[in-house]
Amino acid sequence: MFDNFFQRMWTIISAEYKAILEGLGNTLLIAVFAFIIGLAIGCLIATIKLIPKKSTSYFLKAVEVIDNVYIAIFRGTPVVVQLLFIYYAIFKPMNVPALTVAIIVFGLNSGAYVSEIMRGGILSIDKGQLEAGRSLGLNYAETMFKIILPQGVKNAIPNLANEFIALLKETSIVGFITVIDLTKAIQIIMGWNYFYAAGYFLLGLVYFVIIYTLTKLIAVLERRLRRSDNR
Fold it and tell me: What whole-number distance in Å separates Cα of residue 82 and Cα of residue 171?
């Protein structure tokens, strides 16, 4: 039984490895670039939210309201709904490639979560750091981006790593908008040879290896950061 199972899995790998690698490449491409977008959005929103209220203008208050609405929508609705709506209602009539749309949607979705992660990371920094920056003649934005934000990112690395892993797994739904990612590639291959059990086992195995490797690399990074803090 198991000999036949693994033989089928090897048949899939040996015959269709190029399609599998192409799908894996798209999966990683979406996850990496979406995370970069999400990190940029999250850092910006977290910085805006932490501006002292007494110094906010009507413009910044309006921006904060928009931020709150954005976070509520992207955290309060399923990512598959966001993906389908944004693709078919906004970008498909404009003939934007589905892969680009997937990166944008997952970037926007990730930004909503990263903003809260970064807000927590920034709040973990001693307030004296902000006061020290201001005493050196830096304005609020310069102090945040040159002193506070880098330390906040460092403190938020474990949660940011978890967000990237979650994002990587969530990309498995991009086949709904015709993107050939790892999941969709293996589903197409299974449609040709009907090796469903072996195909889904292979799919899960690839995801497990990638995420397990990332988890170990992140653990090494965290240990090095702790050692640098103790020096």
Answer: 13
d(CA 214, CA 162): 10
Rounded CA gap, 46 and 123, in Å? 10
Quick one: DSSP state of residue 137?
T
pLDDT at residue number 186 = 86
Strand ranges, E, within the chain: none
d(CA 217, CA 165): 12
Quick one: pLDDT at residue 231?
60
For residues 171 and 20, give the distance between their C-alpha atoms in angstroms, rounded to a whole number.
15
Instruction: Sort residue 26 into left (φ over 0), alpha (ψ -120 to 50) or beta.
Output: alpha
96 phi-psi bin (left φ>0, alpha ψ -120 to 50, beta other): beta
Stretches where the chain sits below pLDDT 50 are 1
Q: Which helix (H) or strand (E) holds 179?
A: none
pLDDT tens profile 147-191:
888 888 888 888 899 999 999 999 999 999 999 999 998 888 877
Distance separating alpha carbons of residues 32 and 167, to the nearest angstrom: 9
pTM of the model: 0.87
Separation of alpha carbons 15 and 69, rounded Å: 48
The amino acid that residue 198 corresponds to is: A
**What is the spatial distance between Cα 206 and Cα 212, in angstroms, rounded to a whole number?**
10
